[in-house]
Amino acid sequence: MFLSKSALMVLLCLCTISTLFAQQTTITGRVTDAAFGKPIPGVTVRVANTNRGAITDVDGHYSLMLPAGSNQLTFSFTGYKTQKATVTGNTLNMTLQEDFARLDEVVVTGLATSVKRSNLANAVATLSAKDLSGTAPAQTFDAALSGKIPGALISANSGAPGGGISVKVRGITSVFGNAQPLYVVDGIFMNNASVPAGLNDVTGAATAGNPNNQDNPSSRIADLNPADIENIEILKGASAAALYGSKAAAGVILITTKRGKSGRTNISINQETGFVKVRHLLGQRQFTAETAADLAGAADNPDPDVQAARNTNRQRFLDAQSAGKIYDYEKELFGHTGLLLNTNLSLSGGSERTTFYFAANRRSEDGIVKGTGYLNSSLRLNVDHRISDRISVGFTTNYINSSADRGLTNNDNNGVSYGVALSTTPGFAELHKDDLGNYPRNPYAASNPLETRDKMINNETTNRFVTGVKLDARLLQSDKSTTRFVANGGVDYYNLKTTAVFPRSLQFMENTLGGASIQGNTNNINTNLAGYLVNNFTPSSKASFTTTVGATLETGNFDNILISATQLIGTQTNVDQAGAANPRQFRQKYRDNGIFAQEEITLLDAVTATAGVRFDRSTNNGDFKKYYVYPKGSLSWNLAKMDFWKVKTINSFKLRAAYGQSGNVSPYGSKFTALVISNTGGLPGSLVDNQLGNTSIKPEKQTELEAGVDISILDGRVNLEATYYNKKIFDLLLRRLPPGSTGFVAEWVNAGDLRNRGIELGLSLLPINTKNVRWTSNINWWRNRSQVTRLSIPAFALGAFGNSLGTFYIEQGQPATQIKGTIPDPQDDTKNVFVTLGNSEPDFQMSFFNEVQLFTNLSMRVLVHWKKGGDNINLTRLLTDGGGTSPDWDADANGDGVKDGAERAAAGSAALFVQDASYVRIREIGLYYNFPIKNNPFLRNVRVGVSANNWFTWTHYVSYDPEVSNFGSNTINTSISRGSNGVSSGVDVMPFPASKRMSFHVGIDF
Questions:
Q1: What's the rounded Cα separation, in Å, for the pair 477 and 539?
Q2: Backbone angles phi, psi at 420, to 5 degrees
Q3: Which of 48, 411, 424, 660 could form a disulfide with 238 if both were Cys (CB 3.0 to 4.6 A apart)?
Q4: Is residue 937 predicted with pLDDT exceeding 60?
Q5: For 642-664, how does the pLDDT look when each residue is reduced to its tens digit (9 = 90+)?
Q6: What is the arrangement of strands in the sheet containing 691-692, beginning at the earlier edge strand?
Q7: CB-based contact 380:436 (threshold 8 Å)
């Protein structure tokens, strides 16, 4: 009897399948904690040298198929030491020891490589999801970084909803170039520009004193949802970030979002409900009939108009007093209690080959000013698929929609913003609307701030789409060598619409612009593409070599259109429903590409040496074809891993040193002379701009040498990190005044050098670790000092409003952050002298984080941040003194018979405005309880908690908040406005007051 061909094929397939299954073995087991025997869920169990693995379930169990010829399993989990074991049967149980010192934590050292922290040669700060938002969630991602990164000065520019955070890593990186770190999310370069809304057309803030844009828009990195983040690594200096080339001058913040794990589908629902209140109010002057009259002039002034105005003020006060209508307008404006709602849903899981993570989040937060607030909605989907044991691919997709209503604050020269109008408005003036809805005119300011608050619009709406893909293919593999090809690409696109509407019925619009509708539309797309070849060669257990070569390409396309329409028709807001319109457009494109190579050598798992180089070029440079070279090198030696080490109480004693270079490309447009529009007699044309292009402009070059020691004692319960760095910036990008004969007023040049030196100390402790009580403590201390070491152009002021009020001053041999100003000459009071008054750089900063866990279910966490020193230029007090409304105006602190407000206003000294901005702040405090759920197949965990963010602050600074910057953090340069710079933080001009928040939390895991 003969079988048919079809039957033979079926039989052959069945035999083949049976053979394949016979070659695989199912391994099961349980992973528990070595100290207390508790199961550890979420442990990654992986077959050595393959992509095959499994994840332990809630009871610590796992099961996986072991291919023929494989008998090694690796067990790894964050916070525990990685363990390897040999399979000898069908069951393999494992106990993991907690890694208190995080020595087995894997840290990124290249674009496609990593190393254990115990062998790391750089001071790389890491933040987990718990560190970022596990205590007291902040409003935005960038705000959540405050006080958590040693070596960084992180401050809020404004309390306006939607954020606006300045991040400076290891001092001043650039004066006019990029001074903010590069943000990389799952390999995607994220744009963090701040785009102004054109408010200067109404406020006139940049028309006098300082030409820099003062709209203080939010930073786009604030769009990112903190709940999606798994961990963050901060590459602080050139030695760590050199392979990122010209984008890494200010450091690199690497963000990894959450991914799915094989096994059951986990569902988590988290709800945060809370409220937002103003952190601090200045208070208002308490008037009498006579002090009210004094607002119009002195009693002995013979001018009849002054006397008439005095009588009017006196009568207004008496009428308001008798009617019980003396108001606290500051509290009315800034005392609103806002509702906070944050809802998050996430699903994760998958099979052995495909895993997924999906999250949906909606955050809504009212501002402390009525009509202001922030709404952020986001969707994220991360999918990873293992095509085979050699090839895997991962996808990242994120959609964000955000809307921020930011009010009208900060400096203005027209008296229209809330704070500037309040500074001259006494509490006895009547500003409330009548029964018909009509607002009275404010006789003491150009605007009625209550009317402005209720009628105006200042909104930023963003739609953002971020997506990326990563391919990891194992090309060659042997017992001693593995060669991989890694490629990743990303796209970051956003559309930003800004809307600023000021109806013609507003007091300050009646006799000026007749209403204004300023609408902006920005489209920005950034792409990045990279490919690497990585070879791991392990000739023996005592040596390993990792070689990486690759190339990168980044592009950017920014298009901003802003139309300012005035003389609005009726209540219309469309820009075509106006008597006059002024359209403006700013576009920029760039392309950067680089080539790099890196070699890492590890000997005896104790000595690690790294050397690498990157060749970088950019279309923004004067010579766009030229490659600039950025080398790096590092060496670490962990003495405690050597055979001669006999000190058993010291588990790790690592010496490390690193050197590297990176660049900072010149600003867009610096190499060419632009043409600006002209209209003469109705004939359109172009005129040469007054800024001269420089075809020889080069990128800034940064070099950094850092050295340090890391010590771990008592099985990781005491850990010390100490780092010293010396960072130098050459060929500073500056603006100079060319000779008058050229007809130009500014030119970009490479005209200086800058140095930053600093120390970073970290101490982590585990004082108590028992079954029922666990106390962990982390203490960080850091300081930085800068100096301008070379300046080939004359010294110049920037970032404030002139010598008489205090200004930042770039001068050779002095700190880049020094503040100078004029004061009366002690030898001749008819003259003034220009002297140094302060420095915005803090003397030092410290952070203290403590967590106490009781019975594994109850935990309390506290983060305290201390900033010692660092001066602000406080012009908020200048305005309230000048307006006669300062709360201490009538005091006489020195007993000389002159009221303090009048004395300060007439002092003629900039020293009064340069004030110490030290503070101690409880950044975060939280109390959480996890309800133990046992033997429930559906419900895994229930947790509740309460938290407070920025609730307590101790400071002697006399304004709303010591964290402030009138000029924003990363505002772009456009054809009509000059962006922010890297120096002028801490300029205080009637900001949106800082807020504090308290929240209640409920979380359920299924």
A1: 13
A2: -65, -40
A3: 660
A4: yes
A5: 989 999 899 999 999 999 998 88
A6: 691-692, 746-750, 733-736
A7: no
